[in-house]
Amino acid sequence: MSANLTVRGVTYAYPGRNSHTSLVLNDVSFTAAPGERVAIVGRSGAGKSTLLRIMLALLSPSAGAVELDGKPVFAGSQRTTRWYRQAVQYVPQDPAVSLDPRMSAGRLIAEPLRRLGALPSTDTGSRRAQRHAERERVIWALRAVGLDEGFLTARRGELSGGQAQRVAIARAIATRPRFLLADEPVSGLDVPLRDTVLTLLQDLATTHGMGIVFVSHDLNAVYRLCERAVVLDGGRVVEDTDVASLRHAPQSAEGQRLAAALPQMPVVGGVEVAR
Amino acid sequence: MTSRTQTAALTAASRIGAVAAVVALIGMLPWLSGRSAEYTILRARYADREATPEALAAVRAELGLDRGPLPIFGDWLSGILQGDAGNSWITNTPVLPGTLSALGVSLTLMGFAVVCALTIALALCIPAIRAGVRGEPRRESGALAAAFTALPEFLLAAILLIIGSIWLGWFPPYGWNSINNAVLPALALGIPGGGLIGRLTSEALTAAFQEDWVRTWRMAQFPRHTIAFAAFRRALPSVISQIGLVIIGITGGAVAVEQVFAIPGLGRATLGAAAAQDIPTLQAGILALLVIAVVVGVLAAGIRALLLGPALRLNTVPAVPIPHRTTRRDLIAPVAAASVLILITSVGLFRNPYLSTYSRLQPPSWALPFGADASGRDLLARVAHGTLTTVGTALAVVGVCLIIGLLVGLVPRLSTGFIEVTNAAPPIIAGLIVAAISGPSTIGAAIAVALVSWAPLAAHTAALISETRAQPHIAVLPTLGVGRARTLWAYLLPSVLPTVLRHAMLRLPGIALALAALGFLGLGPQQPTPEWGLILAEGIDYVERGPWAVLAPASALVAVSVLAVSLSGLSIRRRSTRNSVSDAVNASAP
Questions:
Q1: Domain count, chain A
Q2: Which of A270, B219, B423, B588 has the fewest CB atoms within 10 Å distance of its CB?
Q3: How far is A188 from chain B (nearest CA, A)?
Q4: pTM, whole model, 2 decimals?
Q5: Would you say residue B403 lies in a domain?
């Protein structure tokens, strides 16, 4: 029984261009185990974004497949991807602006529950029982990200930056997914907020057993959060290793470049320059 | 993705579909015409025959009306392609020669009108050019002045007829014999169009003069006329499509103006054919009017392509952004015009518009502030109740347009062609078609105006939707299990609705004027309904003995014109989305 999220031989070519340059992903394979925190790193153009779109079932690969528990998923109607979206949720880049400004936090968090039918239908089946279960689940999600039911009616404009991030993450975990896919979720944030979000993701992984696939070019955040790193270069996996080895003994050229590009302070003309 | 070729194919298909639909509509008019045509023809041609079922059936068979829509359309289309537009139902003579000579008259008149419009437009641009080459900020021209250049053609024609032919006696009031006959009609057609073109062009010029390169050129001591010419070239592409639309609008205005001045042109012939239910003549006339519109549209697109050159293909020329500042002074004109309308309406609403209690054409007095019309009815009461009729109908039209605009705007690629075709069709031509099908009525006029007024709202909706779609909170929806339909209805529609609703309300006065134009031509409500256009049309016959019969409805129409122009000048507030656009680009491609 493998409760894993597996990327198996995924290849992607943008249609309508000639074969050589257009191969964005070339036979990419790796696996994320339950509760595991995996980073996908690489420079811009390495294929991270395309891989993420495929893993979100927004794009179908040219070859290969993304599998959850051995069952493949392909981009398609909401009906055919519902089972997958229940189990694999998404924390977008700059989560705060992914909240519809017209809707209350309670409604935002309930939306994936309703659309994905993530709540077990109650025995009585009454609307009221359903509503109650939904409310319970929304409050659970709010609590899990460190907010309380006082935020149910708050709209984006009434939330601080950190609170909005938490609401967006609460929405992602409302269906109790087994994996969270996060796309540079801290790249636009200031340092304290960044720490809060990273800690929160780590807590979710440890307390609720959610696996995290963390796409980033920010190695500091990767070191902070992840256990394993998959290095992409030119659409290929060039290294798949634990984070400590990537940090101290990278094997691939790209891994070395990434690690070397991260001195604590940039050095200009022999003088350390404070940021 | 191959979305670009897909989009191009969909757009092309939609254009072809729209043109085919219009041609099919015209070709099937004899079948669509719900009023029993055979009575008309029997009366016109065989006045001696009884209207027995056999006689009517014989007429139907003679006209080929009993064969169903497709054969009728096929015959008409093959006839047109061979240069035969059929025979008139009334005179039983070929339609084409008459249509062509009327077309010649109309094209001559339009030529004069375009010259007149461009002269006025150029004159209106001079202050902007002078201020621009000196580098001074230009004071915005007053909304009131703009409003007078934007009176609807039928109203302006009536006013010019009174002033130029009756009071001053300088020009003949009707006919088409000498150059003198063309002066007033050309002015009536050219002033509104020229005013609009001038206003748009001088705004674009002012914006062009504010761009950085002008300062550089000025510092480099370029001659003034070189800078002025360059700014003109820079501003022109962004207004040339509008100029094309204005000239197409002149084809619609020509119908009203030819009617007022009794000019034997295409518009008057077509209007007469609609009234007499002479469908073949009507078909030929409408087809000719639409051909003019298409030719003008293609010319405008061609000139724009010539001016822009390769930059158009590379899509690298940013449109000249037209700066909008709404100040408190901009509100004076609409508030004053609205107050006048409310005053007239609230006083006159309690008087009876139908009773002939006064003597014919009784002059204004304290008891009868606007005087009486030719039937001795209270003009204040008629104009006031006319506000309710016209503005009430206009409100209904705005509602229908809003719904159509929103629905169509949600599927923008499929609707491009229909938006273009309806955008270019003047309401009067739509009114002619609808009147031919269902006879003149309030509802018919409302349908005609709605048919051509939804397009700007649909275009605006489409633009807002594609802008909103790019925002992160919409881009994230698929991963939450929100399907396409629900994204449209529950997310996109509510977020664009307030802006489009506001835009629709700003169009209310313009739509009221279009309805009044149809009423004026007899294509709208019939006697004794108090409707502004109809009241004006009644008054014109008695203008020499009782000018007040024209002044009363004209003043209400002028107030609405002021309202229409000053409101459309106010910028449509857009949701500030600029900050989130870069986020959107990142977030939409995870």
A1: 1
A2: A270
A3: 10
A4: 0.75
A5: yes
